[in-house]
């Protein structure tokens, strides 16, 4: 990711040199943890426990259920979302074309990274505060139409593919374009996003946002790892594994997780000394190399997972070509683990800088939020061993949770005779992802 400050590298604190163990030992330990977890699951977990969210969970505190279930709560969230969106537009239109403009931090850090952390803790945040949903609802009300319906029905076959395309458009701007921190480029991206969302919402209704809004899809997938769920109108505390199992096997789901996983892996790879030497010595432009590599990483992630899924046996009623989407929910914990490992310092340090700069959005010496004097502590800069350990744990835990989710789903899909050996292709893919992910993380 492009650094947003001259003093804070995006996420390069705590690499291989800072870890109190070697790369080889870290990879060996992580792979061993994954294999041992699989062995334990085969022995102790022989029936599906979370198929379709079978575990209902337990009721949340009554006061919290009342507050979040009240008619006023979603209205307040919509207002908060619109206020932040209007402030962001203000900084984008009137702010300076410099990295001190808080617009860049809001766009790349608060929106892209903070949304993931908030969704993992609180649930589908973007669905609740989305300004494009709010604007679409306002337009529908003025027109006397139903914002849920739109003009035509959203095609089922299209699924999440528009969201996958939108997510790729974002990571392309961030990682492979020539002007990721040029105010005009980012403003144009946002204008195209808002325009596409409003047109799609008017034509297809709110179903369009559920499938095509890249931020809503991303937020909603990560939200399945939160401990919250609203079922039949009641707020529940529920195992994230139970929530995760409710992700439907929608067309395009594999594309979404492939873009998220592959782009994060490329972000690490792009910071490695190998890649720096490659484009410095190449006869073609870095722009071309970055674009080819970004596409290759996303395609490789999707193809490896699809092949591993297709090699597993399945029931007669589940076509082999659809197996990948049935297992794709298990990649979400891996994505979250990599986001924590790769962007934690970015979110804390540059996110704090953005809060300070938001108090003076036009660079005129203002302090409208009272946060202009806030400064990052750079705590992880002074404790790199702690950060490096968190990185490894995030990756390993993400893969172990993924293995549990995939195993539980496999018990529902695999014939009885293949419920052990049938899972081996996916296990090999998970081992490859674990080893490759740690190698890239250490190389950055």
Separation, N- and C-terminal Cα atoms? 11 Å
Q: Calculate the mean pLDDT score and round it.
A: 90
Helix and strand sequence: HEHHHHHHHHHEEHHHHHHHHH
Helix content: 55-70%
> Strands of the biggest beta sheet: in what spatial order?
1-3-2
Low-confidence stretches: 5-17
Overall 3D form:
globular
Strand content: under 5%
| Largest sheet: number of strands, sense, barrel closure | 3 strands, antiparallel
Q: Radius of gyration over alpha carbons? A: 22 Å
Q: Work out the helix count.
A: 19
As for the number of domains, it is: 1
Number-wise, the strands total 3
| Secondary-structure content class | mainly alpha
Task: Spell out the blueprint of helices and strands.
Layout lengths: L22 H22 L13 E2 L2 H8 L2 H23 L7 H21 L2 H5 L1 H13 L17 H15 L7 H22 L1 H7 L1 H10 L4 E4 L2 E4 L2 H5 L8 H18 L2 H9 L4 H25 L12 H5 L3 H28 L20 H4 L1 H30 L10 H20 L1
Helix pairs in contact: 1-18, 1-19, 3-4, 4-10, 4-16, 6-8, 7-10, 7-12, 8-9, 12-14, 12-16, 12-19, 14-19, 16-18, 18-19
Protein name: Fenitrothion hydrolase
Keywords: Membrane, Transmembrane, Transmembrane helix
List keywords for this structure.
single chain; 444 residues; three-stranded antiparallel β-sheet; globular
